[in-house]
From TrEMBL, chain A:
UniProt-recorded name of the protein: Beta-ketoacyl synthase-like N-terminal domain-containing protein
Residue ranges annotated for the Beta-ketoacyl synthase-like N-terminal domain, each copy included: 48-180
Transmembrane regions listed in the UniProt entry: none
Pfam families for this protein: ketoacyl-synt (PF00109)
TrEMBL record, chain B:
Similarity comment: Belongs to the thiolase-like superfamily. Beta-ketoacyl-ACP synthases family.
Pfam families in the cross-refs: ketoacyl-synt, Ketoacyl-synt_C
Organism: Actinomadura parmotrematis
InterPro entries, A to Z: Beta-ketoacyl_synthase (IPR000794), Ketoacyl_synth_C (IPR014031), Ketoacyl_synth_N (IPR014030), PKS_Beta-ketoAc_synthase_dom (IPR020841), Thiolase-like (IPR016039)
Record keyword 4Fe-4S present: no
Record-annotated Ketosynthase family 3 (KS3) domain positions: 5-403
Sorted UniProt keywords: Transferase
Protein name in the entry: Beta-ketoacyl-[acyl-carrier-protein] synthase family protein
Length: 323, 410
């Protein structure tokens, strides 16, 4: 399976260009104090992003931010090359819009009657709202999948996308993730990490995946491996075994894989997406892959390993070879 | 396309539902046409004109789970882990068998730990966001469901993947399990779905006017909507070669899978998209429409779904479609578990040679015009059975199961 295109809607702004340029320069995105007044939290927002401004007024009145981010990012890839009927969408998430969901329940709890909720808010209270809106707005009639894998979503999405391609269920897969900043997410994340300081980010990133050997590919996904409560290095070692790549031959890798025999200098060659744009939740691994594609564009033939873990227990690693 | 895809069979079944638990208990409930309808007690239902659902009552996950303490899990994760444990036992898989196997755990869910988020929302309204229960916060993410199932089975090298595709999620998870075994990503797939009743989703369906006051009556002229339900279903899938090598009992074969998206409406299903999805599954299975003996419909019992789905069925199967049952009449709309419990029911129907009924039935809606096997199970020799899963967002999934070794299903 080859990566043939990618895009990012990130704290650097709209499109892969600004993201790639900033990653290559190692320039951190602007951060601000968390508007929700969550202690010790900074946020890296997608500058100026508003679903109505980005997508127009039609159908965006009740659209939540995560859906807007996803629709805009997928739209950039579809505009680049129209998606045929055999194009699948695989979108990662933590749990949709935590803000929309908690607002919906709060309306039920505080309204005069418990069902005094806005009907227009119903779609946003479901996890796959963003993927459904992407299909609706971009005419994507192929497989439409939402993978709720938190920070491992992007890598689990790669594993699923690969199966869709191998089983002949899609000719191309738009595989990405979206995560919004919201006060609800900020507080959940804050408590989830026992109040440790954090720098939250948001955005959406999408890869176009096609069968191995597609002309113009940027990189090949050689293998993906996963585990639960497993050491990052163990999962990476299994991914490298499947890819038939010797760990010593890895050129760039996310940190923490020395235990798998990956050279320490490989970590130095891998840009640190999280350090640059903050903790982007479900998009973390997709942004990391995009960062690797940007930083290693001139490293044809080199192998990169991107690994990630979610606090829920999922651990995944992907082995890429730059084209 | 893989040159010669491996044949994939169902060797284990686990179920948690309002009409029975475990493969045997669930099968007995299906055969008896049991109703799981009861007042909802999972949240305060004061102020709703009616709040009947299909809650799971009297089920103690702690009696099923061997490794993971039930107390640390959210309700849906408990259901998922328990169903996975039951499925492993039903498949005759010991911990030693599982240790060396390459496994996938794929769980579909609409809500994950949304019941926990509901409780946290109430706590935030009462005392502000700074004082939330941190253990409850960690039970919210949907990723916790397959993680709990994997931990329960000791599968540290498993891919634990969550399908968040709303009410089609359980069917998507089974389809991905099929593919994981077919393409060689896994030797064993534990796939299905789980959900727990929650205020958020009950209120969403209620506000749309799609919750029935008393009973779910799919394809009935007097249908009033869904009864929200809860539970979990998990199937063990493996290659036919693997099942033979270990002498496993085969409940059914997974013949094929189809998935697509209507891309037409945020919440309403579209006839053409649903028909196309069934065609994709039939083509994947290499089965002609005339060979399908039974359809387990998505059959929510809402006005919109049932007519649209019935039209789509006739578009694919012609004017004499196979018997089409709405199992949600018995155990409610279990959301992300719906497709999984439907597939478990299909496998049981094939293995035990009966058609589970559509209960609460009075008069078939002529606009639906289907033989929904009203009220009483019937004995039947089923060779090919189809299970439909349709969801918000227009995302659809269909799986086909067949009797292992039946002519036309091989």
């Amino acid at each position: 399976m080859d990566i043939t295109a990618w895009t990012a809607l990130s704290p650097y702004g709209t499109g892969g260009g600004p993201f790639a340029e900033a990653v290559r320069a190692g320039r951190p995105a602007a951060a601000a104090a968390d508007p929700a007044d969550v202690p010790d939290t900074e946020v890296c927002l997608v500058p100026g992003f508003d679903p109505r401004a980005a997508l127009g007024r039609r159908g965006t009145r009740a659209m939540d931010r995560v859906t807007g981010l996803a629709v805009a990012a997928v739209g950039a890839l579809v505009a680049d090359r129209p998606a045929g009927p055999g194009t699948a969408l695989v979108l990662g998430t933590t749990g949709g819009s935590a803000q929309s969901m908690t607002d919906f329940t709060a309306a039920s709890l505080t309204g005069e009657r418990p069902f005094d909720v806005a009907p227009a808010a119903v779609p946003g209270a479901v996890m796959n709202c963003a993927a459904g809106q992407c299909a609706l707005r971009h005419g994507l009639t192929g497989p439409n999948i939402t993978i709720a894998g938190g920070r491992a979503s992007g890598l689990l999405g790669l594993a699923h996308a690969r199966r869709l391609l191998l089983a002949g269920r899609a000719a191309a897969v738009l595989c990405g993730a979206a995560e919004e900043y919201s006060p609800a997410r900020s507080w959940l994340e804050h408590h989830g990490r026992d109040g440790a300081p954090a720098r939250l980010g948001e955005g959406a990133a999408v890869l176009r995946l096609e069968r191995a050997g597609t002309p113009g590919a940027l990189a090949r996904v050689l293998a993906v491996a996963s585990g639960v409560d497993a050491a990052l290095a163990d999962v990476a070692r299994r991914a490298l075994d499947r890819a038939r790549v010797a760990p010593a031959g890895v050129w760039a890798a996310t940190p923490g894989l020395e235990g798998a025999g990956v050279p320490a200098r490989a970590a130095a060659r891998m840009p640190d997406a999280r350090g640059l744009i903050g903790d982007t939740g479900a998009v973390a691994a997709v942004f990391q892959i995009a960062a690797a594609l940007a930083a290693l564009a001139d490293a044809a033939g080199r192998v990169a390993v991107v690994a990630g873990a979610d606090p829920a227990g999922q651990v995944s690693a992907a082995v890429l070879r730059m084209a | 396309m893989v040159a010669a895809p491996r044949r994939v069979v169902v060797t284990g079944l686990g179920a948690v539902s309002s009409i029975g638990t475990g493969a045997a208990g669930f099968a007995a409930g299906l055969r008896a046409g049991r109703s799981g309808a009861a007042p909802i007690t999972a949240f305060d239902t004061a102020g709703y004109a009616h709040a009947t659902g299909c809650p799971v009552t009297g089920f103690d996950a702690g009696r099923v789970l061997r490794r993971v303490p039930a107390a640390g899990l959210g309700r849906a994760a408990r259901f998922a882990a328990a169903a996975a444990r039951m499925a492993a036992a039903d498949a005759g898989l010991t911990d030693a068998d599982l240790r060396g196997a390459r496994c996938q755990v794929a769980i579909g869910t609409t809500d994950g730990g949304a019941d926990e988020l509901d409780a946290l929302t109430a706590a935030r309204l009462a005392a502000g966001p700074a004082a939330l229960d941190r253990a409850a916060v960690r039970r919210v993410p949907a990723a916790a469901l397959p993680a709990a199932a994997a931990r329960e089975l000791g599968l540290t090298a498993a891919e634990a993947i969550t399908f968040g595709t709303a009410c089609a999620a359980g069917t998507h998870a089974i389809g991905d399990g099929l593919d994981a075994v077919r393409v060689g990503d896994a030797d064993l797939a534990f796939c299905g779905g789980a959900d727990a009743l929650c205020r958020k989703t009950f209120t969403a369906f209620y506000r749309l006017g799609t919750v029935a006051p008393d009973a779910c009556r799919p394809f009935d002229a007097g249908r009033r909507g869904i009864l929200p339900g809860e539970g979990a279903g998990v199937l063990v899938l493996e290659s036919l070669d693997s099942a033979r090598a270990r002498g496993a009992r085969v409940h059914a074969e997974v013949l094929g899978y189809g998935l697509n998206c209507d891309a037409r409406h945020p919440v309403a299903p579209d006839e053409r998209g649903v028909a196309r999805c069934m065609e994709l599954a039939l083509a994947d299975a290499g089965v002609a429409p005339a060979d399908v003996d039974l359809i387990s419909a998505h059959g929510t019992g809402t006005r919109a779904n049932d007519v649209t789905e019935a039209r789509a069925i006739r578009a694919v199967f012609g004017d004499a479609p196979p018997r089409t049952v709405g199992l949600k009449s018995m155990f409610g709309h279990t959301m992300g578990a719906a497709g999984a419990l439907s597939a478990v029911a299909c496998a049981l129907a094939i293995a035990h040679r009966f058609v589970p009924p559509t209960i609460n039935h009075r008069r078939t809606d002529p606009e639906c015009g289907l033989d929904c096997v009203p009220n009483e199970a019937v004995e039947a020799d089923l060779r090919v059975v189809q299970s439909n899963g349709l969801a918000f967002g227009g995302t659809n999934a269909v799986v086909l199961l067949g009797r292992h070794g039946a002519a036309g299903a091989a």
